[in-house]
Amino acid sequence: MDTTQGYREVETPRALAKRLGIEMDDLRLLSRALTHRSYLNENVDALEDNERLEFLGDAVLDFLVGAWLYNRFPEMSEGELTRMRSALVRTDQLAEFADEINLGGAMCLGRGEAENGGRERPALLCATFEALIGAIYLGSGLGEVQRFFDPFLNGMAHQIYASGGLQDPKSSLQEWTQAHGDGAPKYRTISATGPDHEKFFEIEVLIGDKVYGRGSGHSKQAAAKAAAREAIIALGAE
């Protein structure tokens, strides 16, 4: 597959697998997981998009997250486990996991989708992350998926313990400002640097005309969340 047509400097499936330590003999599965239907529509050499792998990965994630929560939090009720699983596999959270590994830089998108910010769009990042999980499952089995995904979950454990949930920091900040009679926080992009496969954003959050936090990340969403977290600390709203 030509990963240069329609956009620039896209990370290859082989390079992605090496960087992430994914053990997979058939890189065609990984290539398929990274292929959005917009690329398929524009490139005759692409055979299949990632939608079927996305479906499979969604089911695998539901199982793995459910098992992880069951074993990690024996005191939780069935209802609490269900709510926590929903929080961990929601679109924004999976998009954040995708951003942590800079998955957007390896996505095969059509020219229009790439130029319109598809590499930063939470829905596309989430779908590609699910497809990646589906590809790892088909190519290497459930054990390899668990080895790859458990670090993401372990990294969230402290947040679950600390807050009893996984509320988005932007939502928390907005709730605080509304409760204190302030307007909704505003997010402003300070800079966007780097090539497509390694984009880096800096964003600041303002309440009124005053900056309360600044954050950075490989997507606008991640940078805005980091800014919101900094603002929450600055305001003593934890």
Please give the alpha-carbon distance between the first and last residues.
Answer: 48 Å
Domain count: the total is 2
Helix content: 55-70%
Determine the strand fraction and express it as a percent band: 5-15%
SSE succession = HHHHHHHHHHEEEH
Report on this model:
The protein has helices at 13-20, 27-33, 37-42, 51-72, 78-88, 91-100, 111-115, 122-140, 142-163, 169-179, 220-235; strands at 186-193, 200-207, 210-217. It has 238 residues and is mainly α. The protein has 2 domains: 13-163, Ribonuclease III domain (Ribonuclease iii, N-terminal Endonuclease Domain, Chain A); 169-235, 2-Layer Sandwich (Double Stranded RNA Binding Domain). Strands 1-2-3 form a 3-stranded antiparallel β-sheet, covered by helices on one side.
